[in-house]
Amino acid sequence: MxxxxxxxxxxxxxxxxxxxxxxxxxxxxxxxxxxxxxxGKTASAGSMYVTLDRLEEKGFLRSxxxxxxxxxxxxPRRYVTVTAYGLRELRSSRAALLKLWRGLEGVLENS
Amino acid sequence: MxxxxxxxxxxxxxxxxxxxxxxxxxxxxxxxxxxxxxxGKTASAGSMYVTLDRLEEKGFLRSxxxxxxxxxxxxPRRYVTVTAYGLRELRSSRAALLKLWRGLEGVLENS
DNA sequence: CGGTCATTCCTTACAATGTAAGAGTCGCGG
DNA sequence: CCGCGACTCTTACATTGTAAGGAATGACCG
Lengths: 111, 111
Prior knowledge:
The structure is a homodimer.
Chain A: H1 10-22, H2 28-39, H3 45-57, E1 61-65, E2 78-82, H4 84-101, H5 105-108
Antiparallel strand pairs in A: 1-2
Chain A binds a DNA duplex through helix 1 and helix 3.
């Protein structure tokens, strides 16, 4: 279990970032769309719920349920927000990538 | 197996980037150092070999053995280089992250 | 009212990826 | 000869990624 070795996986990172961008409007389907838009790849809904649960368990995310009366149908939405801890992870992950990318712009820039 | 769904994981991406930067000098221990340097976290050697194997299997990486006579001891070094395919993945992964980061600079920039 | 629909959620099981622990090889210095 | 340092590789297990499928809730229409 080694609690100290917890890091962000690839998909987890994308999810956290999408949540940040969506602000108040972050719930599963919206996050899915956001990721789809950025990556061009569509993840399944199941992946999202599982990942959201795990992120919350680890303290990277917090969630609250919307009033069911205010919704049009289906179960009440579960809105999520990134915690301070999650934000810290995101920052350090970004810093590491920027470091590794530095100097490779020529090679990595798109065709 | 779903061959088309192959993506880069978190660590795999770091490894590929480190290999790119190291150029001719890319072999396991050096890659390990490079990643350590960028992330501040030390991965184990075992992780590296396993990951290198898997990346090669998937065609993101190619490897060749150094002359054993030219080495100081131990087994001959295994040098690796990123394939065109690997480079493409790296680019698209970077593009996705840049998209998601855009507009969040204020929040993500470091303390 | 009852049926169909769209929207949302969740569970389960399995595949892919991440990681640690530990062992094997070779050449050198003592 | 023996231990040491610099490499590599194997194995086994934990964590993360993903698809498939099911169920709740309310709108709309006949």
